[in-house]
Amino acid sequence: MTKTIEFPRGFLWGSATSAYQIEGSPLADGAGPSIWQRFLHTPGLTPSGDTGDVACDHYRRYASDVALMRELGMQAYRFSVSWSRILPHGKGAVNPAGLDFYDRLVDALLENGIEPLITLFHWDLPAALDDLGGWLNPDIAGWFADYGTTLFRRLDDRVKKWATLNEPWVVTDGGYLHGPLAPGHRNLFEAPIASRNLMRAHGAAVQAYRAAGKHEIGLVVNLEPKYPASDSAADLAATARADAYMNRQYLDPALLGSCPDAELTEIFGEAWQPWSAEALKLARQPIDFLGINYYTRSVTRFDELAWPQRAAPVRQKGATYTETGWEVFAQGLIDTLEMVKKRYGPIPLYITENGAAFFDPPVAEGNRVRDPLRIDYLRKHLTAVHTAIQRGIDVRGYMLWSLFDNLEWSLGFSKRFGIVHVDFESLKRTPKDSARFYSRVIATHGAALGEDPDSPHVR
Ligand code: BGC
What we know:
The chain is an alpha/beta fold. It is about 40% helix and about 15% strand. Strand 10, helix 14 (about 370-390) and strand 11 (about 395-400) form a beta-alpha-beta unit. The chain starts with 11 loop residues before the first strand and ends in a 16-residue tail after the last helix.
């Protein structure tokens, strides 16, 4: 007999999105352009040519979207604020209409019994700040803290959980080193500078929160456990480099006040400069929780040509891969949570993103979208979260990525991560089978994870 799964009462169940990926109307009501607005409107930079001009039109449909969240039984909603709606030039004059939008969204959530979790920065840097160097300009720590303060003053009376940055690794790796993401730079020397300024900005925003807010603030990182493909010295060293580059480059400064300099010097050579005492001190501010985004793992081998870390992933025979080419590997989530506890101590944790893009069939009769692979992914990962809690790891909530099919950045609308299908012509929302499944998991405190997915009440 399988054991019944029961999550602790008070465990927070929700879903996650980000501003540029769902809102649409990016320049409405006095907002300034972000780097994503500029990037996706530059012809030829992305294969699809898709932009966030409309996306899910959430900016105009937020009230019915919140009603849908309630219908699905969501207890929490993690969203990000568009910096350039609040400060069209990134700093200086505040745009009251931008603040009003998030004020209304927060009220709508609370009226529907849904707890808001706000991320200050989910990649959509104001274009005006990019013109000043963006994450390469050390002054950005102060700009970010001031932006945060504007939001804390307005919303902290109602918002109890805040996060500074979403996934600093992706910002530097995609935006400054390899370039598929805005602002699209490819520069070995810039990436370490961007990382350092991101983490300084994180620290400065936490300090600003201690002055202006009364609740909780944390950092959101995407963690990917690295397993050596063999026990050869070359593979072991490559695995350590890959881990330092993606995971410890951000966790160590925030939580230990140090940097994995040895590996980062091997990776970046003369482009890596050890952080100053000021940077290390600023980055390490006491935080109230760590948000972990987990999607996959990487089995890693030495590869001379994999620039710059000389470490490459090895495809696993017989494994399931998602539409974004990520191996489905739920054990990696348990390993990640255990690693965090062991290395960094007993900090409260939230899974702030977890989910999968799979090919979905069109909406069928009776408004059904059958997405069994996504259900399977969720079942495995939620069971992993439960196992981790049983092993004494302090995981307090789970924010599924994503509530809606949305703009998958440079990949446009081609990759669907939502548990709610969005028809990008009519903008109609249709909960997929996975949404029904997740609703039932929430309503049963996890017990539905042990149910047959084809049973009628899972739908
Ligand atoms: C990001 C999301 C993104 C998701 C799927 C995360 O790295 O925070 O914005 O859509 O992964 O790629």
